[in-house]
Amino acid sequence: xxxxxxxxxxxxxxxxxxxxxxxxxxxxxxxxxxxxxxxxxxxxxxxxxxxxxxxxxxxxxxxxxxxxxxxxxxxxxxxxxxxxxxxxxxxxxxxxxxxxxxxxxxxxxxxxxxxxxxxxxxxxxxxxxxxxxxxxxxxxxxxxxxxxxxxxxxxxxxxxxxxxxxxxxxxxxxxxxxxxxxxxxxxxxxxxxxxxxxxxxxxxxxxxxxxxxxxxxxxxxxxxxxxxxxxxxxxxxxxxxxxxxxxxxxxxxxxxxxxxxxxxxxxxxxxxxxxxxx
Length: 278
Ligand code: GUN
Prior knowledge:
This protein is about 45% helix and about 15% strand. The chain is of the alpha/beta class.
């Protein structure tokens, strides 16, 4: 069966919009884009549109490629103090002259709707999560819709990035699964994949995961978004073959992608509620 991320994300947005309609002040999200990378520009536009759809206040802030580190940090400090803004997101990657880590650490952890600040990652590691990285959290929402109990399941995460692989592994561990994290140096990847009751792949290599590696009845979550020369979008898993072995699988596009943005809105509402309660 297909895990319909587009549909699950839509339901999530409807639920968020219903909650926003009852609030006196609109939750506010600021999204900063540095430079003009076309893919990043599309992501930022989608985030801004999603905010409008659920009734958030949103600020899309475009900064030139040659912005200095100090100027970017000053912009974040301004947003940290802005009462209209509950969530701050700096689109990654940043130009190489910018220290991305320092940028992330400058965001007020209570406005860190990406969940990338060391304080929020530390809380996730300690199984005391607060603001959680959007893609892994969105994947947990998708897994919940299958009704499959994750306790004791063999979960394999392929990819060890700070944005997806590492926090994804922690989410699954927090759900009391047994977790294997693979990276680009993993030997005999196919043998690890064959053991996976749940497979999450986030590497950005088209068809890295072959269909005949998939364990019968597995749940397959494909985070990859790769554009082929013919213009089509494909994931990291050979979908055509994998879908016949898996019990559940996410499509690309229309799988994890929409969930990441809906989860960003969910995190912004969480940050708003924390600020309003104080
Ligand atoms: N670039 C790719 N994914 C993400 C994300 O989830 N958040 C941010 N800020 N940048 C990204």
